[in-house]
Amino acid sequence: MKTSWRSASLVASAAAVLALTTACGQDSGTQSASQNVGATAPAGGYGSTGLGTDAGTGTDAGAAPGEQNAVAAAAAAGELSVTADAELGQVLTDSAGRTLYRFDQDTAEPPKTNCEGDCATAWPPVPADDATAGEGVDAAVLGEVTRPDGSEQLTVDGWPVYRYAKDVAPGDTKGQGVGGTWYALAPDGTKAAAEELPGLSTRNDPELGEIVIDGDGHTVYRFTKDSQWPMKTACTGECLEKWPVVAPVDADDTKGIDLQGSTPNRGYVVFDRPDGIEQQTIDCIPLYTFAGDEKPGDINGQGVGGTWFAIRPDGEPVGAPAQ
């Protein structure tokens, strides 16, 4: 079910957009000559896991010892059950209590897996053999799909089912949100989620305090080399591969965000970038996420290059040196 935030229109009137854009003084025909500054990782790589995990597939050759992967890959699902998770709500688990996952790059209609090779090592496919529906699971949603190697993989409402090699104990959900493509399964085959987030909202981080997050729960950042008034971007080209822009989010699809800004008409507007990409701003400050944040709650982009910082709901950077 979608929350009330989702009921709002995603398109503002042309007159309103033009007025707000002018107020921010953005110049879509110019940009800062300094680009990609601070987009490289600090010594030691991006956070604890680095970018060895492919953001698109979630593959990680170092996910777990080979023996552990082999055991996880060979284990039958047995009787499926439903486990209550404090953060994710109802989660589908196998007979051993291990969390089961789905992959956004797979398809359910028709069922098809796109996780092979190293991906299938980090995310072992769950065999269809012996899988049965326990309490709270509808047997009608269980099925199977033939993998390229000829084996039969369990499906739930058409979605191929996997375990995550880094989940070592019953109830672990370390695979949730990895690469922005892997999610724990709800009993009906949808993505497990206790509450659907609005397009932009805030959370209280134990290290950084109140910070902005996107609709997937990922931390939102600002780049101190961008210009606020007039709006200009210093992150283009390859920089955007590490720091994807936050796409426009309707004001009614937010919670806890300062929509007014420090000056009237300089609040929550869309930036028409010189490269043709539309980017959401807070107080005329362009917003980004970080490719090195593998899952919701990660803050691996904080302080990168001394120029990238998590952003507060009023647009202020968290922990940035005084200008």
Structural commentary:
Keywords: Lipoprotein, Signal. This protein is mainly beta and 323 residues long. It folds into two domains: 1-48 and 197-323, no CATH class; 66-184, no CATH class. 9% of the residues lie in helices and 20% in strands. It is built from four helices and 17 strands. It has helices spanning 14-24, 66-74, 118-122, 239-242; strands at residues 79-85, 89-93, 101-103, 107-108, 111-112, 132-133, 142-146, 152-156, 159-160, 182-184, 200-205, 209-214, 221-223, 270-272, 278-282, 285-286, 308-310. The strands form seven sheets. Strands 2-1-6 form a three-stranded mixed beta sheet, with no helix packed on it. A three-stranded antiparallel beta sheet has the order 7-8-9, with no helix packed on it. The longest helix has 11 residues, at 14-24. The protein is elongated, with a radius of gyration of 22 Å. The chain starts with 13 loop residues before the first helix and ends in a 13-residue tail after the last strand.
